[in-house]
Amino acid sequence: MRRILYTIGFSLVFGNSFSCVKSSSEDPLAALLTSPPVITSVTPQIGTPEQRNANAFYSATEVVIKGENFGIDPVIRFNDTLATITLNLGTELYTRVPNGTYSGFITVSKSGGSCLPNTKSGVNCAGTEFFVDCYSVTNKQYGPEIELKQGQGISVEYKGNETKAFRSDTLLSARNLTIGCESAVTVRVFNRSCQATDYVLQNNPIIPFPAGVATQFYITAESATCSLVL
């Protein structure tokens, strides 16, 4: 009789212990749904939105995001601009740089999650830096970009009808680009989303540049020496 009672008691204790262990273990599916996504790579990390400028058209750069735990219905943003997912392979997401994008962050958030505006952090969010470059998509057809720093003046020689590519540094305040040239010049200035404004056959133009960004621009001249001051 004692042996029977002991066996029953042991079974009850063991059964309760097993039940507690099982109920305290984490549900793998729930963990997968609530854990944040992980980005291992973004290729390329430099690209351009679609460019539709006079005499030039370039498609938006295709970007591949590799990682894990993206969820069933992930959301991709370039800063606060929503991007379309063209292909979802589970561990790879394909998208294109959307119009209006500028340098900052690319992020992936899961359904029910969100990324804080213009950051790479948030709830169920992962992100990394992404850079917009308006010139690299041309395979640098006008040669290396020449950097012009604020407060700096440079002299550039043109041989025949020639176009050169330039980039300012990131301006601490709005400034004017002043061009002095022996010939009329044509200038193409890109905003931070790669949309261009053209100044055609201008004599010694003065062009405003915005604060807080590095501005890319082209200057075309005819057999002349031109001075640039920013």
Write a brief structural summary.
About 15% of the residues lie in helices and about 50% in strands. It has two helices and 20 strands.
Based on DSSP secondary structure assignment, what is the total number of beta strands? Answer: 20
CATH class of the largest domain: Mainly Beta
Supply Rg.
Answer: 28 Å
Mean pLDDT: 89
Give your account of this protein's structure:
With 230 residues, the protein is mainly beta. It has two domains: 28-132, Sandwich (Immunoglobulin-like); 139-229, Jelly Rolls (Sandwich). Helices cover 13% and strands 49% of the residues. The chain contains two helices and 20 strands. The chain has a five-stranded mixed β-sheet, with no helix packed on it. It has a five-stranded mixed β-sheet with strand order 12-14-19-16-17, with no helix packed on it. The protein is elongated. The model is unreliable at 1-24 (pLDDT under 50).
Which key terms come to mind for this protein?
single chain; 230 residues; mainly beta; Immunoglobulin-like; Jelly Rolls; 2 domains; five-stranded mixed β-sheet; 20 strands; 13% helix; elongated; disordered N terminus
